[in-house]
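Dear U.,

Please find below the material for section 3 of the report. The protein was modelled together with pyridoxal-5'-phosphate; I have listed the sequence and SMILES used, followed by the predicted complex structure.
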Amino acid sequence: MKHHRNKLMIPGPVEFSPAVLNAMAQPTESHVGANFVNTFKKALEQLKTVFCANSYQGFILAGSGTFAMDVAASNVLEQNDQVLIIDTGYFSQRMVQLIKHYGLNPDVLTAKLGTVPSLDLIKETLAKKDYKAVFLTHVDTSTGVLFDLKLIAQQLQGKDTLLIVDGVAAAAAAECKTEEWGIDIYFSASQKACGTPPGLALLMVSPRALALAEQRKKPLPNYYASWQNWLPVMKAYAQGDPAYFGTPPVNLIYALVESFTEIIAEGMEIRIKRHLKQAFAFRQGLKALGLQTIPQTDSVAAPTLSAIYYPSGIGSELIKSLAENGVVAAGGILPKFQDQYFRLGHMGCCNYLDLIAVLAALEQALYSLDYCCFDLGSAVAAFQNAYIKKNFLE
Ligand SMILES: *Cc1c(COP(=O)(O)O)cnc(C)c1O
């Protein structure tokens, strides 16, 4: 029998803090009782802080990240809208499928693996049509590629085009000044860097996106996802009044408030820097082992996870070996490439000590597969060297 619990290091769900798990385990209360109403109200207020969107409308809904994608798309689009999707991997492609499912025919600008499209190419594409909306993924979880949101937001400044961002693997860890940068919808889910078990879809929506949604002549057919159903509920709870459309996941919302409280106590700026620093140091550890990541440069490498090519001659047995050494890793999910790489998450409450342990486990796992072209401890040393550099990002 193993005497320890493996560390869950996949890119979501992640490890959750003891206080968050404890909040989940309290007796369930009435969803219209004063205690819960105040908790929901607090969650909506905290969402504004964590997603940097003070005057936006928040939605906290029972559902996974995919539901948040559905809510974002189906509430603002209508038939024959021109839509652009900037495709950096698996979840951008899911958005393509989702929008096609509603009968629209989106344009797709696909990036080369491990990169984002150049600014020139984006400008050229945007100039071609009057797009109703541009969709993109802040951190693509299949490739570990980070998108520079500020840059694209600048391109859309002053235009009517809505900017809709999938922040499922980025929110609460990667910088996004949602309101300041003019992002119209930023959405996420509970189980990644937001630090709460799976089950909540989280969205922040700009006033103009809400207004556009209402002005549609032929709204897409939706029901559980419809803002018409949820808006009165969110508005009521925000004022401290109960309301009902579908029963909210009471325990999860208590857990979310606990996690947001931890996140806000850490401070968003510090937290964002911590993720950048941990991820950078982690990549130095990988390099010391001769391993390569999918993102081709540091500037497009996600702060929240790493997608790592298997060394030659090794495949998914590495994931098995990692599990034997105490770490749960994820395989590849990008079609065509999925057998060539694996993924490790480094977001949420995981800290530098966790990552040192993960790198040590990775060294041991590689040794046990006879990949021994490095000295044991070299990834750990490379991580520590990078991590203790005082001038990091300063
Ligand atoms: C995880 C993820 C999703 C899907 O979320 P689910 O909770 O699995 O439905 C969507 N987009 C991105 C970027 C993700 O990382």
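For the text of the report, you could mention the following: Residues 268-288 form the longest helix (21 residues).

Regards,
Y.
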